[in-house]
Design goal:
heterodimer; A: about 450 residues; 6-stranded mixed sheet; B: Rossmann fold; 6 helices
């Protein structure tokens, strides 16, 4: 479809708003033009999306959507011009902003907030969806898990022609393949299974009959190879599997990707079992889009990190390791990966309670921080709810005289750096808005580039 | 002294960091030379009245709540006996609703309660979400917490609330009261979790459990500096944004 003149004018005007917003120092300005467009003409998003010659794909999950989408972008980069909301602005307004800048793009690749998925899907009409997992997250904002799952089912039902790429290891997500075809991915390496379901496992009871699932292997939270002993509801057969997984501490993870298209070894530069899920999902979506397996592997192996997620930043003669934490399941995997590599003796944890972090901070009590506590000599607790975080660690068994409460983020960062020897690495675990703020501090000191300045 | 805790349905009702409450009780007991002995009471487990000093029941999603409600009714007689004999109860959110007479969900389906507290709950059209501060004048203290419930809980005539709402919604968003207490049974919507930043209430619950166990209920004061800071921040949040949708 040729862009209409009206649409062209619209696009330039709204893009101008983003430039003004950035010039005024209001951060990335990544959602402001989209917010305006969304307010003035919500249907414009449908029209902008319809201009993309190869259509759009959506990526959603509680955990890993930013990383998975960034992996897909890296795989597709040599082949296609992609419009991608790489800055993580994943509500309707953020996607609208990305579309406004997408004149020459051939394909839209959008990471979408779990709750926004139905609205975005209705407007963008994607040709494929990658759906990763559903964990309890920000109950004050999303409501109960069941409600999000129901909205996903309805959204998917409205897209009978879209191809589904689903994580079969999550009962709620795998069940979306119940009465239609889908490409289902999952892990297949019981050596790496957890001995028991974690506290943060959510979908523990059979969707069909309510009996507790039995797990042949539980990998991350409630993700794994499950089966209901009462009614037989079980993980669907896998089309794409990760097997022979080798964890290399904080340096990466290798696995064999086995798909109907073929089998190949993948060496990821990102660590942890949860990144195997991210890579497997991204690879499955790329295969569904017709990318040859060799290109999928090459793209995954080129990928380093999405911002704030296992991102390393040089600060003078020291280094920051930034690990976003935002809910129990995700934080557990970060802790597990850190501790299995080498547990840090100093860490800065940052807990904010803005809308984007979740105003209800009770989730920190559901995280298994205890393995981290065992190795900690010094904790710097920061953010707007620093004292609350300090209490979590104190009641988790960390001596109170090892905890420093410094609510102001920049002061806490400096204190952490002071406690880190030259040449050493400081581990930072911030919630979402704290991560953005800490990254901004690092940018102001000239250590990293702004994400909106890097090309997608 | 050993304080025996029966944690009702920990596998099902654990959504708002209920294990934080248990961790706080255990540590504060330990610091006073007591020991918390926590056992899970799940579906199908029988309740031996007299062997438990404190029953704890937390919150779950509607789905989990429905899965346990009917089992709880099976335990109702034993739990009533326990309460009559002075056992302490702490019920949070979904557990609080189940200790009432009944809970009617948004779809109009009714779940039975066990009527240990004189109240009933009907799910309303809007969720009441946010920080809360309540004034417990019976103790001369305040509690700061977080609420997230669609259920509107109505206390019956003469029932004692846990506190008066200073900021936030409380039981139903209009009566101006929050929670309920009767004998040694305490129910509330406040999580966050409830006890870490409200140490006086944690100690009060411990003292109630010790009273049933036949022990000395005096608890030596602790420093509680972090606890006070966390309480102050949470109370500020309630002041700034509690009770607004």
């Amino acid at each position: 479809m040729r862009p209409s003149v009206a649409l062209f004018v619209e696009s330039s005007v709204f893009r101008g708003v983003g430039a003004l917003s950035r010039a005024a120092g209001r951060g990335g300005g990544t959602t402001l033009p989209g917010k305006l467009l969304w307010k003035l003409d919500p249907k414009a998003i449908d029209r902008l999306a319809a201009r993309l010659p190869q259509g759009s794909v959506l990526v959603s999950a509680t955990n890993g959507k930013t990383t998975s989408a960034a992996m897909v972008a890296e795989i597709l980069r040599p082949r296609l011009r992609v419009a991608h909301n790489s800055a993580g602005a994943n509500l309707v307004s953020g996607i609208a902003s990305t579309l406004l800048h997408a004149d020459r793009a051939e394909l839209g690749l959008f990471e979408v907030d779990e709750a926004a998925l139905p609205e975005v899907a209705r407007r963008v009409r994607p040709r494929a969806l990658l759906l990763g997992n559903l964990f309890r997250d920000q109950l004050d904002r999303y409501g109960e898990l069941e409600a999000v799952a129901t909205r996903w089912r309805e959204a998917v039902a409205e897209l009978p022609d879209a191809e589904l790429v689903l994580n079969g290891d999550d009962p709620q997500v795998g069940d979306l393949a119940r009465d239609r075809s889908a490409r289902v991915f999952g892990l297949d390496d019981p050596r790496l299974a957890r001995p028991a379901l974690q506290h943060a496992a959510d979908s523990k009871y059979c969707l069909r009959c309510g009996a507790p699932y039995e797990y042949a292997a539980a990998y991350v939270g409630h993700l794994g190879d499950y089966r209901c002993p009462r009614c037989g509801h079980a993980r669907p057969p896998l089309d794409v599997r990760a097997c022979e997984i080798e964890l290399h501490g904080l340096d990466g993870v290798g696995f064999t990707l086995a798909a109907t298209e073929g089998t190949a070894r993948v060496e990821l530069a990102l660590p942890g079992l949860y990144n195997v899920y991210n890579a497997l999902g991204a690879g499955s979506l790329a295969l569904t889009l017709g990318v040859p397996l060799a290109e999928v592997v090459a793209g995954l192996e080129r990928f380093s990190a999405a911002f704030g997620r296992f991102e390393r930043i040089e600060v003078g003669d020291r280094r920051l390791l930034l690990l976003l934490v935002k809910n129990p399941a995700g934080a557990n995997e970060v802790v597990r990966t850190l501790v299995e590599a080498r547990a840090p003796s100093v860490a800065v944890l940052a807990l904010n309670d803005g809308v984007a972090d979740g105003r209800d901070v009770s989730w920190i009590w559901d995280v298994d921080f205890e393995p981290l506590i065992a190795g900690l000599e010094r904790l710097v607790a920061t953010g707007s709810r620093a004292a609350e975080l300090a209490l979590r660690f104190a009641y988790g068994g960390l001596d109170r005289d090892r905890i420093e409460v410094i609510p102001q983020l920049e002061e806490a960062l400096d204190r952490g750096l002071e406690l880190t020897p030259p040449g050493g690495e400081l581990t930072l675990l911030p919630t979402y808005t704290a991560m953005l703020a800490l990254r901004k501090i690092a940018v102001a000191r000239g250590h990293v580039t702004n994400y909106w300045e890097s090309t997608a | 002294m050993k304080i025996r805790v029966g944690h009702l349905y920990p596998d099902y009702l654990n959504i708002y960091a209920d294990r934080g409450n248990i961790a706080v009780l255990a540590e504060r007991a330990r610091l006073r030379g007591h020991e918390l002995d926590v056992r899970a009471l799940g579906i199908g487990d029988s309740v031996a009245t007299g062997e438990i000093d404190l029953y704890y029941i937390g919150g779950g999603q509607d789905r989990e709540q429905a899965l346990v409600a009917h089992d709880l009714v099976e335990k109702a007689a034993a739990l009533h006996d326990a309460a009559d004999q002075g056992a302490a109860f702490l019920a949070v959110c979904g557990g609080y609703q189940l200790l009432g007479r009944s809970y009617r969900d948004v779809a109009g389906d009714e779940l039975p309660g066990i009527g240990l507290l004189p109240l009933s709950t009907i799910a309303g059209p809007r969720r009441m979400i946010g920080d809360v501060l309540i004034d417990c004048d019976w103790a001369g203290e305040t509690i700061a917490g977080f609420e997230n419930h669609a259920g509107q809980t109505i206390l019956e005539e003469g029932a004692e609330p846990l506190g008066r709402v200073v900021f936030g919604f409380g039981n139903d968003g209009s009566s101006g009261v929050e929670g309920c207490r009767w004998k040694r049974v305490y129910g509330t919507y406040l999580h966050g979790p409830l006890l870490p930043r409200n140490p006086w209430f944690a100690d009060h619950i411990l003292a109630e459990a010790l009273a049933h166990a036949g022990g000395q209920t005096e608890l030596a004061p602790l420093g509680d500096e972090l606890e006070r800071d966390a309480h102050a921040v949470a109370a500020d949040r309630a002041r700034a944004r509690g009770g607004r949708v």
